[in-house]
User: Fold these one by one.
Assistant:
Number 1:
Amino acid sequence: MTIDIVTIFPRMVEAGLAEGVVGRACAAGRIDVVVHNLRDFTTDKHHVVDDVPFGGGPGMVMKPKPFFAALAAIRARRGTPDAVVLLSPAGERFTQAHARRFVEKAHLVLLCGRYEGIDERVREALATDEVSIGDYVLSGGEIPALAVVDAVARLVPGVIGDEQSVEADSFTRGLLDYPHYTRPAEFEGRRVPDVLLSGHHEEIRRWRRDTALKRTADRRPELLHDAALDADERALLRAWDVPGVHAERQNKGSK
Ligand code: SAM
């Protein structure tokens, strides 16, 4: 898949793309991420990308024209993108479901704002999606864009060496992940749960399932409404008497 990112801070984005899983995915050609400097799409001498807000008020607003020009250049090179994602605190909350949807696209464009945000006409005319990475305000869309690229890249086949680790990740089945331990078996008086040292694969599988379910019920019970639960898991939830989880809703997505 190809991801075009439009930003006024290309080096910031490139630095984030260079390391770890995303860096390896790019180096191996599993994803192709192209970072565009928005200022390259201005026509004035000083490459100005912002202007004062109509109606007054503090701060500056990003002008529409450079974004329209950037999108035109991307379209001319690669055709119409499958999705144009505007990063914005006012967008839909970005979730694993968005990552799963975006990884199906062959060509994504991510638009990063700065200042007070981007002229609304960019959202109206160019964006197919508007996503927020959480209910807080960052100074720019670059970190949110990197978060989206990372979450999507992990789902590209072959990017994560051990496919099972993506399978077990938090949210893959709509549940939080189970706790992880590595050597030593005892550290500063804290022992790894015996079951993980037992070598009993079925008991380990059950322990992991139960702890993932318990954690989700304790910390994020609202996730259980849409989780893909099997009959055993629904029985466990009933036994634990998880408040606020309606029995019928627990059936949703079950095998
Ligand atoms: N005035 C805007 C508001 O209150 O919603 C905040 C603009 S913010 C300082 C500048 C840019 O950072 C935004 O245009 C957006 O691209 C990005 N941004 C900030 N927080 C974000 C978040 N939680 N999710 C996605 N993008 C965010």
Number 2:
Amino acid sequence: MKYDIKVSKTKQSRLNEVDFDNIPFGRVFSDHMFVADYENGKWTDLRIVPFAPFSIHPASMVLHYGQSIFEGMKASKNENGQPMFFRPEMHAKRINASAQRMCMPDFPEDLFLEAIHSLVALDQGWIPPQEGSALYIRPYMFATDEFIGVRPSDTYRFIIFTGPVGPYYAKPVSLIAEQTYIRAVAGGTGEAKTSGNYAASLLPARVAQEKGYDQVMWMDGKEFKYIQEVGTMNIFFVINGKVVTPATDGAILKGITRDTILILLREKGYEVIEKPLHIDEVVAAFDRGELQEVFGTGTAAVVSHVAKIAYGDRVLELPAIEGRKIGPMIKDEIDGLRSGRIEDTHGWVEEVKTLELVD
Ligand code: COI
């Protein structure tokens, strides 16, 4: 191990309170968390401590100007009970891409990887055993200067905590193609995983929910015609056997699950098209009876089927899930790779190293 991560273990594990057959998303947290502080241009005081609240100064810059970024990743157990990560280095890289956009310091990739290995090795008992469930890992960084002038903070905190999760969406989702609010435009922060993007999505999502839909399907910020992404997912359409997804254009999050699916589908011989995708093309395909499937993809959501999409006065009711082919197949492939049921030929699955942690 290259870094000196100090470990203080909890005196009283809460693991026996968890019902792995009934895990709500995002409400159960494991015993420990990793913490590091950035001061004088360096990440210092690397530590794993019992998961617990911490205090924050009222003038802490993150609370005022939103310099805050995060990742979402997962660890699962393979059929032999070995804990595994999925493409962890992609998350280490992406958080630094977000940091750069938000004028925050890099977090060294090798430290990120060492921290998640150490933390998940320690709390591996929290990884749910069932395929499709996982230990969700939430790395995040925020500004901590006690100052209310507008400038980048000089100090930051980086935390990683984890918690067992089941599926994010329990059933197929319904979407409204948003025609009033926008999530992002090229040149904005849409490609960064920064908290403000999610804050800005809350009101449109609430309006969609009041109309009986689960989420918003974001459209481009100029014409409200080109599809971007959905609440917490990238989005894929199957039109007459071809898979089409919006090209990332600077306003769309570069999903790691999205990338994985593009690679897998192309290897399986599907025609996969990344392009600016006009909503009229989707409506026309629906009217011809050629819109066969729509699914969203993301770390939390994995692959979530879309049941219907509202656009203006049209409601596109999509074919029943039972008749779908590509969405269910690709979901099974990802679940299978994570559980070790399907052989990983890409080097995507990485065993969690069982480390000797000194208390
Ligand atoms: C993830 O898919 O991990 C995300 O970050 C979505 C999250 C906002 C639930």
